[in-house]
Amino acid sequence: MMLKRFICILQLVLLSAVPLFAFPLNRDSISPKFEPSEKALKWADKQLKKMSVEEKVGQLIHVGVNAKFANQDSEYFQDLKRQVVDKKIGGIIFFGAPIYETTILINRMQALAEVP
Question: What is the DSSP code string of 72-83?
């Protein structure tokens, strides 16, 4: 039992150290910082001025789901649709999801959202 616990702790320590060695220390040399265009900033300001406080708070909320095939009449799809349309959530986080189902679900929810 102690050996098993020691191995688990060792794995956690090693896994947490990997990011330290996986990237060079000078990250600026890898890619330049992203700066949004003036047009993008104006669009964002315009959208924020139109939004209510509830909509702004909703944009801070992200829900996590396991993407799976979802018929548009299914309870799963309707619940997610309610989150996007009524609650105006800011994003969806997909866990362990197949690529095809994730893509279809993202596209459907994106089409329903008022704010991309």
Answer: TTSHHHHHHHHH
Q: Return the number of other C-beta atoms located less than 10 Å from residue 111's C-beta.
A: 8
**Residues present in the chain in total:** 116
Across residues 18-37, what is the average pLDDT?
63
SS3 of 93, please? strand
State residue 19's pLDDT score: 52
Q: Please tell me the predicted confidence (pLDDT) of residue 2.
A: 60
Please, what is the angle between helix 99-112 and helix 75-85, to 10°? 40
Is residue 2 helix, strand or coil?
Answer: helix
Cβ(67)–Cβ(105) under 8 Å? yes
pTM over 0.70: no
Q: Count CB-CB contacts under 10 A for residue 105.
A: 21
Q: What is the C-alpha to C-alpha distance for residues 80 and 78, in angstroms, rounded to an integer?
A: 5
